């Protein structure tokens, strides 16, 4: 099982600023992270809920260590674990760049105080984190007798940063020359090879996203869609053939084949189910692309991404009849980031829209879709994802909402959010992070099944 620490970028910046403040006599500052976990058979994801600095008065004078916590600091942290039912992780920072490591004193003290948290909150993992100016390291106790080092760090937001300590590397052969996209960063090919992307919906919107993710070299692509291809899908489903229609091939099977045709080394995880029955693919994903019909499905999918601290990128299009044989084609791409304004904050998911039928998408019959509009929106989504995760372009947006006018074939930034955003997101409180039924004592059982 891979331990992953996941923290919003904005919160991480606040933690580093606080730990950098001088103290009256301690050489460094310390604090605690409260964490709400979720797990799959592959991963244990530790989602940071909040940072709790140790109060100035709760340090003890001790020149033999950088910072010595007094009993009140430990008691307050134990109270948080007990009353809020969260995992607690001690945190401090080393003033350098690169991967930090714990000192012998750190390791000795952790072995003492971490076990106290299991006495008050035995169902949660606990541990310790050390930061540098650009990286982190840590240890998680899955039980009082079982401790594991972090295998991966996910700092999610704008920008998003992924650190994998034992990374995958694309195979060296004639099919893996990424020199034409080297401007994305000197190690972008390795970064992409270690990213796990989930595409929900493998139809007109999801199939070109899968294609583009394969071309740029995303190493793990998960595709979820319960449907089989129908004759009307062939006008827009990238990679599909007439033979697929004849044998009613599952859409995820078509996506799987098309991705592997582009890059055979990519790990593809197709799941022919509703996405709600494949949440294990979402929990440890680094990004989720939503290509679903209906506002309510968007709301549910964004809610799941917020719960597990995953960036969500949504695309959708609409065709509306405005006169006889005259239609307006429009679409949108929205990026919703952990801890930032959600699609309700932006004014996209409104109660009026949620009350509509999920597939009430215009007047052209059925759910009108065309390949060029779908593919344009897919390109905007993949471009936003690449900007978010690579140093190619400075990305500091707290959200992104692009609108496509299919009639004039222009893309513009939506003006709607400036009339709707009023302070921090109030729709997804931090207490709703992670798996509400998580119990660390069941992890060993899950791994043995």
Automatic annotation (TrEMBL):
<dbReference type="InterPro" id="IPR045886">
    <property type="entry name" value="ThiF/MoeB/HesA"/>
</dbReference>
<protein>
    <recommendedName>
        <fullName>THIF-type NAD/FAD binding fold domain-containing protein</fullName>
    </recommendedName>
</protein>
<dbReference type="InterPro" id="IPR035985">
    <property type="entry name" value="Ubiquitin-activating_enz"/>
</dbReference>
<feature type="domain" description="THIF-type NAD/FAD binding fold">
    <location>
        <begin position="189"/>
        <end position="408"/>
    </location>
</feature>
<dbReference type="GO" id="GO:0061503">
    <property type="term" value="F:tRNA threonylcarbamoyladenosine dehydratase"/>
</dbReference>
<dbReference type="InterPro" id="IPR000594">
    <property type="entry name" value="ThiF_NAD_FAD-bd"/>
</dbReference>
<dbReference type="GO" id="GO:0061504">
    <property type="term" value="P:cyclic threonylcarbamoyladenosine biosynthetic process"/>
</dbReference>
<dbReference type="Pfam" id="PF00899">
    <property type="entry name" value="ThiF"/>
</dbReference>
<dbReference type="GO" id="GO:0008641">
    <property type="term" value="F:ubiquitin-like modifier activating enzyme activity"/>
</dbReference>
